[in-house]
Structures are given as structure tokens and as C-alpha cells.
Amino acid sequence: MFRFIAHTQVIKIANNYEKTPAQILLKYPIDLGHAAITNPGKGEKNMADNICIFDFCLTPKDIEILDALNANLRYFKFTGNSGHPHHPFETPKS
């Protein structure tokens, strides 16, 4: 499975900001104007790290690099919602 957190470009961007790759990947949707939901069950250190993403902004070049990492996959497919008229990932019927 593709792991964005270990991608060399993500690590390079993280090093530029003296942040972790996880912080970069959390900041990315925020800078695009989206909400980001984290898993708080990973401990207090991770929760503190998650809050430390608001002291910098990714540059347009960083956003461009992260946009290019599209792996064309979904981690959560919402299969329990299959068949609902508003389910976004239905396979088109022929």
C-alpha cells in the first residue's frame, strides 16, 4: 500500500519546515480549506504535534508537489453506505 508519510517529497517538505511528515500531511488539507480529522488514540505526544501545524503555511510549490502525489486510491470506501442514492463511490451501472 502506498504510504504518503514515507514519500521522499513529503519528508523533504517536512525537513524544510522542521516538522514531521505527519504534520505536513495534516497541514495539507487545512491549507486547501478542508477539515482534517485525526486519530486521538495515538497518545498525548501526537495530539500535541497535531496542534503545532498552525505556525506555518505550505507554499504554492509545496501544494503542487503534494497534489502530484495522487495515488488514485481510497483508504476508506464507505462500503456500508453502498446503494444509498448519495453514496459517492458507486460503480456506474451500464
Automatic annotation (TrEMBL):
Name of the molecule in the record: NADP-dependent oxidoreductase domain-containing protein
Family annotation (InterPro entries): NAD(P)_OxRdtase_dom_sf (IPR036812)
Organism: Glossina morsitans morsitans
